[in-house]
Amino acid sequence: MRSLSLIAAATLAARVASAVGTNDQVNPDLDYGSFQNPSSNVRPRFRYWVNDASMNLTVLAEDVRSIGKAGGGGIELLGYYLYGDSTNYGGGDMAPLQTDWSEYYFGSPPWGEMLDTILEVAKENDLIIDFANGPNQGAGVPTPYNDDGLLWDLAGYNSTFSSSSGFSGTIPGWGSGRLTAVTTGTIKSNTSSEVVLYESSLRDVTSMVGNDGSLTIDSSKTLSGSQTIIFAYYLVHSEYREAPDPTSPSIATAVPQSPVTTYNQNGSWVVDHFSPAGAQVVASYWKEAILTSKIGELVREVGNYLWEDSQEYSVATFWTPDLQKKFLSNRGYSVNKYIPLLVGSGGGTTSDITYVTDENDSGDSHIVDYQQTLTELNAEYLDALTDWSNSLGVQFSAQVVYNLPMDMLSNVPHVNAPECETLGFSENIDGYRQFSGPANLAGKRIISSEAGAMYQAAYQESISELLWTFKRSFAGSVNNFIIHGFPNSGNYGNTTWPGFTTFAYLFSAMHGPRQPSFAFYSDFLNWVSRNQFVLQTGIPKVDIAFWSKSTTYKSISTIYDSTDLEDAGYTYEYLSPDNFALPEAFVSDKVFAPNRQAFKALVVRSNESLTTLGVEKLVDYAHAGLPIIFPGGLPSNFSGYNPTAAAKAVQDLKGIKSLKNVHLVSSDGLASTLESLNILPRSSTEVDGTWYTLWREDTANAKSYVYVYNDATGLSFDESKTSGTISFESTGVPFFYDAWSGEVTRITTYKQSKTHTTIPLELAGNQSIIVGFDRNAKSTVHIEETTTPVLPTANSSQSLTVLRTYDSESRDINLSNGKTVSLSPMSTGSFTLSNWNLTIESWTPLPDLYDTEGQSRNNQTFQISSLIPWNQISSSLRNVSGIGYYETRFNWSPSSSSKVSGAFIDLGPITHTARVIVNGQELPPLDITWARRDIGQFLQKGENTLQVTVSTTLGNGLRTYWDVLETSGKLATAEEPDPPSEADYGLIYPVKIAPYRKDKVA
């Protein structure tokens, strides 16, 4: 049952009915702002870490305000609590408690004061707030010990007896917990790590166990000489905590802890993730401890998501009291006798021995059935949390399934805003497509990502690296980022400069005012916001759907590893056949999901696993005319154990082979196959690199948007610049949407047919752009063909002007009005600026290393003839982080005969941040992948002054202090013995001025 019993009586439920903010579908009635200035609703947010509820409220308020001023849309509030019960990454008992956690626990009165402060500040500053369900990763809350809504486990015991002698006695482990099942199986063969059981010998003998745990099993003459194992399993609580008991002897403390007198103070327990009962525990605690009438009202006003992180808790075997009933109902047989095969599913400590059967698949089909059942049970948990969140006037977001043995694709639609992450997905675009396919089919407005976490990179991740992860995510249809992360800026016990640092200096990043670059964050945050504005607009359109059925996603790996589809411009996503039950999973006019992705074909590879529902739907789709491609032939694998259904599924597939829209093809050359069938991409590419595209269709405003990304992973700037053409399936008037400056300009070089628009483009490595098509705009004169590479232009509704940089050749251009214009050579070349004055503002700690609410700043000035990294200018700069102020002068005195009328400035790639001022006029933010801009309007005859301000990460600056840095009483060297690697800071590429001549051509 989806609904929680307490929801009906939830606080202020009567007023929730008319509350806004629970519509999770595309095209919502929501204030997006504009492309130039997106609203907080579509801006990225920061994961905001508070280690406990003792934070200074003034600092807290200023942190939230500073995020808004920097261009963020708000925060995701997370009580870190030293990473809970895990000893990974400096968590658990690895750092001593610095405050009284019996007083400052999650949901305590001080926590309520913090929450109230954050919500009030958010309201005043038009920001939105997400809330972790609980401390650490949000998987649990304070709860009475042994509550039935807590996470369960199976305690397993076994003993061996002679099959010919039988067994009479007490079952192993009797009294360890609630008896779940007793199974026997006879050994066929065994090694030190694996035991093979005769499948035919497996027996569920649970009903034979007496009330005192006694069991009698008769001897077997047919199995004379064999050994039989009796397995007994007991239902127990996992006792996995999200926050520890502060008074536990295993917990180190730097200050005394008050006695624990209520369960609220006794840490937090992970709840049952396979039952609505787990959601009930979370909802009950929030109602009791957190949701006062005032906070409830503020949550509805500025709240956005209740949220849960990726599931990283462990048990021996995932279980819940209703699993056996659900398994029998949905799989058609009892799970009991197969439990020995399932032990170890939870990743916790178990026996070193694995049990399998002598079936052809070693019993894997039964494991798949168990994993599918877990998937269905987890969906009920997610549904319940979604319903509860909606009852409060907000939505529910979660990092769905991955890390666990379930079908991730099946459960993605069960939350309002499914979230993935850059770290766990290894920045893999194919992985994002797996996650996004079901979300887009379900019409979810938001596909979120926890972005920017990098291992062993605390204080070292550059903005260019961060945006690289964003761009790859965008290419996989992710359209919302929660930036990892922003620690509270206040002082904390036994914590040195630069401030409280989560994960004991292991993971990036620690954003905020401690970073020299924070004052410049608005440049890239506005870029992210504008991309999110576009990619949350309209409906995504995708060329190809891949069938993908898996019941375990403990890691995310590439499914389709050929590059032929990208090379040809195809976009694709993955769907589990479970997703075919969604309302929009139908075929119309030979298109699958016409109101969603509008897939042009469905691909089912020969190694895929079939399901009953999936094949039934597939047959329907085939008869409706959808092109279905079977690379390598028809699949015969079946997901789970059901021989009758498996045989029928294979037979049903054979029954559609003769349809003209069903194609059995080679497993190689899928793109060529699609082209031969006239199934063409919406954006076909002809380029000398790898360009990804993502299409959003805004039917209401007659616009299409296409995100284009040049993937140059691992290549240098000089070798990664690529060019070519993209042919878009649109005939609207094309525009460039510059996410850095917010400018929207007409594209002036393109050619149109009756169905397509072809545009030549040049992109730097890892550069992305947005192309928009407006079907209501009127076309103006433009360039259709040219013998030169991509031409910069300046145009208006009345004229078209080419900005002609150095070119020794004459060029002809053909215009859309039928005219041909010849351009004479441009002889004035570019020149490199030299003789720089560089002042470096070094950021270091205050004299008191434990005062983290400020920085010392010291200046050094250098005269340099050319641009090189700071650490090469002077050895004194090797361990310096901060802000660099560059200034140089150059003469601008073009001769009248050259007809030079302006110039571009080109800084090449920027590692972190850069702002440019020409003669006192600040340029709009520059694209840091290729920082190039027209500065013609700012130039003056004679001497011109150029100023460039850059910033750095804190990594180099920490090197000097590494051995004494600590956070919450734990030294940085405890997790990271070596200081950060020395990074190259500053302007590194030559800064060039490229003069141009204006040639009016229309």
Automatic annotation (TrEMBL):
<dbReference type="InterPro" id="IPR008979">
    <property type="entry name" value="Galactose-bd-like_sf"/>
</dbReference>
<keyword id="KW-0732">Signal</keyword>
<dbReference type="InterPro" id="IPR053161">
    <property type="entry name" value="Ulvan_degrading_GH"/>
</dbReference>
<feature type="signal peptide">
    <location>
        <begin position="1"/>
        <end position="19"/>
    </location>
</feature>
<dbReference type="Pfam" id="PF17132">
    <property type="entry name" value="Glyco_hydro_106"/>
</dbReference>
<protein>
    <submittedName>
        <fullName>Secreted protein</fullName>
    </submittedName>
</protein>
